[in-house]
Design goal:
The chain is α/β, with parallel strands linked by helices. The chain contains eight helices and eight strands. The longest helix has 12 residues, at about 30-45.
């Protein structure tokens, strides 16, 4: 009796901020439902870890992502203000041309969590997909490659770190899949 070839168990590790900002810079928004199905159907992803900086106002987004099948890992965020902007605002308080204070930058660095989960879960998957164009994941990609476990690195666009170029044969650029993965607001079209 012929033995069936078993599909490899594939996990995806997604740097949500890198992905989201990278595609928005190109002028589109990801349809998260389409993306989860794409990962599952095209690459056989059984577990898609979505690493996100936690903000109280985004609770419904986290729940939605979970409903779509993402395993949401939340990281505490920090509010970072721009000292130059704060100084300009203070200097112009009594002036006729006040400087408008910029919103503080919200930082939720998920890199270490992503690497930790990829390493911790390694016995449970055959192949891994890193979804980020961030060069901080070079060492992880290199190690996964050495272990024969790197399936792909999905970058949001062509502006990914030059450190990742050594994995050129593993790179999947999501900007080239815009038509397939972009969010389309039917409500706006019907007005």
């Amino acid at each position: 009796m012929a033995r069936r070839s078993q599909k490899p168990n594939v996990y995806a590790f997604i740097d949500s901020q890198n992905l989201n900002l990278g595609i928005q810079r190109n002028g589109w928004k990801m349809d998260w439902r389409k993306f989860r199905l794409f990962l599952q159907e095209k690459y056989g992803v059984t577990h898609a870890y979505m690493f996100i900086g936690y903000m109280f106002d985004n609770e419904s987004l986290y729940e939605y992502m979970y409903e779509l099948g993402f395993l949401v890992v939340l990281k505490p965020t920090l509010e970072i203000s721009n000292p130059e902007n704060d100084k300009a605002v203070a200097e112009t308080k009594n002036s006729d041309n006040p400087v408008e204070k910029e919103k503080p930058l919200i930082k939720g660095n998920v890199d270490t969590e992503l690497v930790l989960y990829a390493m911790k879960e390694m016995p449970n998957y055959d192949k891994a997909i890193i979804v980020s164009g961030d060069g901080d994941f070079f060492s992880l990609a290199e190690y996964l490659q050495e272990q024969g476990k790197l399936a792909h690195i999905m970058t949001p666009n062509w502006q990914f770190s030059s450190l990742l170029k050594v994995f050129d044969d593993k790179i999947v650029r999501l900007d080239q899949l815009r038509r397939q993965l972009s969010y389309y607001d039917h409500k706006k079209k019907s007005k």
